Each structure stands twice: as C-alpha cells, then as structure tokens.
Amino acid sequence: SLNVLIGNPTAYLDHPGLPTQDALAVAFGAWFLAEDLFGAPSDPDVWVDERLLDLDGLRPVYFGLSLLYHVGGALLAFALMTRLLGHWTWGLAGGLLFVAAPKLVEHTYNLRPDTAAAALCLAVSYLLATALERGSAARLLAAAFVLGFAVTMKLVAVGLALPVVLAALVLRPRDWQEPTRETAGRLFQRHRRW
Questions:
Q1: Which of 77-91, 96-110, 131-145, 169-183 has the lowest mean pLDDT?
Q2: What's the distance, CA 189 to chain centroid?
Q3: CA pair distance 2, 21, nearest whole angstrom
Q4: Burial 153-167 (b: 16+ CB within 10 A, else e)
Q5: CA–CA separation, 96 vs 31, rounded Å?
Q6: Is-contact 29 51, C-beta < 8 A?
Q7: How far apart are CA 65 and CA 108, in angstroms?
Q8: Do residues 162 and 115 touch, judged by C-beta distance below 8 A?
Q9: Residue ranges of the alpha helices (H) in the chain?
Q10: Residues 6+ apart with CB under 8 A from 19
Q11: Residue 7, Ramachandran bin (φ over 0: left; ψ between -120 and 50: alpha; else beta)
Q12: Dist CA 28 CA 22 (whole Å)
C-alpha cells in the first residue's frame, strides 16, 4: 500500500485484496498530507522509505482498518436484519452473530479481507431477498454490483453468482424495464439537485 501511494504498481492481487490495499494507500496518503500540512514538508518517496523501515509503527493504521471492517460489518448486519425482519431486536441479534462469528473474530486483529467480504456477502443476500420479495430489478442489479465488488475483496464471494443468476431468471427480463424505469425516475426526482 505504501508503494501504491507513490505510484508503483502492486504485485499482490490476491491477498489482502485490491480494495484493502487501496484503502490503506488512502489512509497512508491522508497521514502523509497531514504531516506535510502541519509538519515539515517532505518528499513522498522519502516518507514511504521511512515508513517501510518502521513497519511496527504502522500497526495503528492496519488495526484501524481491520476494526473498521469488523465494526462496519456488525453495523451493516444490524441495519440489514432490522430492515429485513422489521424490529431492532433482530438487528441486534444479527449484529451480535456477526461479531461472534468464529473465524471473523480471529481476523479482528489481523488485516484480512474476510470480514469485509462477509459483510458484502450479507449485503448481496439482503438485496437478493428483497429483490425477489418486491420483484425489483433495480435491487437485483444492485446485488450484482455489490457482488462484483465483493469478489474483488475475496474470491469466495463468487459462490453468490449462481443465486444472482437464478434470481434474474425468476424475475424474468420482460418484467425489468418498467420497474427499473420507475425506480430510476423516483431516484432522479428525489436527488435531482445532486
């Protein structure tokens, strides 16, 4: 991630995943800019070299992103389960189950993409369930988009491709045009200033 920050290409496409590397590069970039604004200006290459010589000093950034993945996933589970099942107690149960998932607990202290991928897979599942429940082509397209991002986090998310394809077959493409047009029109009217 430090090398990505100064413009070098990455050689690690699998672990920890491109989104994680990019998120760390953004965090390191913010750190560099803060030091550059409030401290002595320095050359980015020199700054990166200094950080690479003291990897132990980078732990707060790694741990912060790891904690963000874990807490963000638990909050997402809370929000989705509350919305899907209609009461905050179900959301609390979903959030607690996410926090207590055995393999995810191990990854709270390690920067691995598993926790973020689990949260994204939960979001895909929610979008699929509500797409089928409401017959919403827009939600199905959103599920496919989130699935594409989840696959860049961790390749095991590709297992949700079959349910997305099956949902597309169940919704039937001829039913897509009108609901998608209505949804797009409502979104445009609601957010036209943006």
A1: 169-183
A2: 28
A3: 9
A4: bbeebeebeebbeeb
A5: 32
A6: no
A7: 10
A8: no
A9: 2-5, 18-38, 44-53, 59-85, 88-100, 102-106, 114-134, 137-153, 161-171, 177-190
A10: 113, 116, 149, 152, 153
A11: left
A12: 10
Q: Residue type at 70?
A: H
Per-residue pLDDT tens over the stretch 31-65:
888 888 887 767 888 888 888 888 888 888 888 88
Looking up tokens 């599942």 gives 125
Across 72-92, b (16+ Cβ under 10 Å) vs e yields ebbebbbbbbbeeeeeeebbe
Residue 124 identity: V
Task: Give the integer Cα–Cα distance in Å for 48 and 134.
Answer: 50
Q: C-alpha angle with apex 142: 138 to 144, nearest 5 degrees? A: 115
Total-model pTM: 0.77
